[in-house]
Give the backbone structure.
Amino acid sequence: MYTPALQNLCIVMVETSHPGNIGSAARAMKTMGIKDLRLVTPRKPYSQETWALASGANDIVEQAKIVHSLPDALADCHYVIGASARSERTLRWTQMDARECGTTVAERLPNQKVALVFGRERTGLTNEELEHCNALVHIPMAFDFLSLNIAMSIQVLGYECAMAVREPPAPAEPEETLASSEAMEGFYTHLEQTLVDVRFLDPENPRLLMRRMRRLFGRANITTSEAGMLRGMLAAFAGRKFQHRSSSTT
Amino acid sequence: MYTPALQNLCIVMVETSHPGNIGSAARAMKTMGIKDLRLVTPRKPYSQETWALASGANDIVEQAKIVHSLPDALADCHYVIGASARSERTLRWTQMDARECGTTVAERLPNQKVALVFGRERTGLTNEELEHCNALVHIPMAFDFLSLNIAMSIQVLGYECAMAVREPPAPAEPEETLASSEAMEGFYTHLEQTLVDVRFLDPENPRLLMRRMRRLFGRANITTSEAGMLRGMLAAFAGRKFQHRSSSTT
């Protein structure tokens, strides 16, 4: 069920204050195929909001491991990445942005257990907790004074990990076929004739207008059935015209 | 204050049920430097939760434009991308994933106003609303039966847009401006009337045909001058018709 590629990735939330954030985090994880949630001394028990926000990811919450210290949460992990609200100006840790984090996780997961650690909603991780991290990750933001909600951060980093491990998707099987060049040439000829008939197009100098029509319809990737529909429209216009001619000659 | 690079990007939320989601969406937008929020008939007024979850992004909520229809929200937009829960197996719209969406937005923003449209929490966008979109975007997910919370989707797509504009791609210098939604609506109305006049379109049941036309022309990225040319063609067809009527009454 879960993406095997991410089965060695765990999410650690430290002293989370709002039980709703745990539910939102579980949903964010599940959408990205991550199932291993570890909670270090959450401040409150699960609430109705936890389950409401988990919304289909209840299994993640039910299976979450609750521990009393960060080292307990990280015991089986080989590589630990701490989430930081901003890029730290320090050489003490390897720094990465969210995209680099995805790449790093994807490179390590086949052989290592990797943890992404998220601190308290307001104050993040303490310096002591940061010492347990091999690297820090930040999500590039427009403002320094505003940060992402914790579940939002888990969503974005989880998304980057999922993107980094995914294999290029097989091309979608199209439900319709594109019109062939032959079919499109038939349409252009039909269009040109109809435009000449209504005197919108000067047959003495037809080139520019038809070129523009070719560019326009060429960009649209017309399907076979759409080409048929367009020619049906032209026939309707032409029918009108023939009707006109016959009435004007009577 | 806001990333100038994203000032031409707007977020449109259609008939949002939970006022809290509007607050979360505003915060998600602000962290990524997006400020233009448009709400199509939200189902409930703002609540305490709206402001609590906006958390520092109150200005986005206060300046949000509330309108009564999707076309009203999109009137000044040149390119519209609808959020879809999954990749549609169809050629009817240009399909992109979140990353491709970021690239597309970054390429267009210097010269165009771009909208990202998000549907109702449970049911998304209606087929009719999808007709107003030039393309669909999905966030790749691990499960088909679970979707991202709407504010989470805005966070991820906003993040991808912000990442994509960080390093400005060499923009293809457009030689022409794209027709606005308003101009395209004028064209569709004109087209529909002309098709009714030549009896190609049954006014009792016009929907399917016009939907197909919207999809077709929506994919083509019609320029302002092309829209004028198309309407000139329609006028030529209509002129023919009027000529016919006058001759048939003599």
Observations:
- Chain B touches chain A through 68 residues (CB under 8 Å).
